[in-house]
UniProtKB/TrEMBL annotation:
SMART domains: Sm
UniProt signal peptide: none
Subcellular compartments: Cytoplasm; Nucleus
Protein name per the record: Sm domain-containing protein
Length: 97
C-alpha cells in the first residue's frame, strides 16, 4: 500500500512535484494574503509568520466586513482556531501612499 501522493492522478503538481499545505504556507510568507475567519470577516495584509496552530501574524492589515473596508491595523495577530482559510491575494496591498 503506497502512501506517496506523487503517483496519484489529478494531484495537480506541476512537473510531478507534490506541494503539501505546509510547503504552500512556507512559500507565501512575506506575501499579500487574505485570511477568512469563521465569522465571515476577511483580513488582508502581508503574512509575517504563522505556527503549527495556524496562529497568524500579519502586517499592513485591513479588516473587511461584507466586502467593505472597516479598519486598518499596522500589525495584527489572529488566533488559529478562528481561521477558515488562508489564500494568496491577487491584488497588491496599498498603504494609502
Amino acid at each position: 500500500m503506497s502512501t506517496g501522493g506523487a503517483d496519484k492522478p489529478g494531484s495537480g503538481g506541476a512537473g510531478g512535484a507534490v506541494k503539501t499545505p505546509s510547503d504552500f504556507l512556507k512559500s507565501i510568507r512575506g506575501r499579500p494574503v487574505v485570511v477568512k475567519l469563521n465569522s465571515g470577516v476577511d483580513y488582508r495584509g502581508i503574512l509575517a509568520c504563522l505556527d503549527g496552530y495556524m496562529n497568524i501574524a500579519m502586517e499592513q492589515t485591513e479588516e473587511y466586513v461584507n466586502g467593505q473596508l472597516k479598519n486598518k491595523y499596522g500589525d495584527a495577530f489572529i488566533r488559529g482556531n478562528n481561521v477558515l482559510y488562508i489564500s494568496t491575494s491577487k491584488r497588491t496591498i496599498t498603504d494609502g501612499a
